[in-house]
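Re: [ENG-882] Designed sequences occasionally contain unexpected residues at chain ends

Forwarding the minimal case from QA. Structure tokens:
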């Protein structure tokens, strides 16, 4: 990983940890397998930090631009799949 996560300097240490954890799981969904429940739980915590849909889209776009990994398809698949673990392809 040679890029930076999109973060807001006004967030607390705990909020930064939650956002970084969420984006780390997005990476894992593309690089290996991830647990459905882990993604859904991390997304809920991400939404506690970033409740606005427009801000969410901005952070998702910034992360995708930096990493090449799209967050929305991972969250969508986690919501729709019945599998306990899954992976996403680019």
């Amino acid at each position: 990983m040679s890029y930076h996560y999109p973060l807001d300097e006004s967030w607390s240490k705990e909020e930064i940890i939650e956002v970084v954890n969420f984006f780390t799981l997005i990476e894992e969904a593309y690089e290996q397998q991830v647990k459905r429940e882990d993604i859904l739980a991390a997304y809920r915590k991400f939404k506690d930090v970033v409740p606005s849909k427009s801000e969410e889209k901005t952070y998702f776009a910034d992360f995708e631009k930096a990493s090449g990994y799209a967050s929305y398809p991972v969250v969508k698949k986690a919501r729709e799949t019945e599998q306990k673990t899954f992976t996403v392809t680019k």
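QA comment: On inspection the terminal residues look reasonable. The chain has a mean pLDDT of 95. Proposing we downgrade this to a documentation issue.
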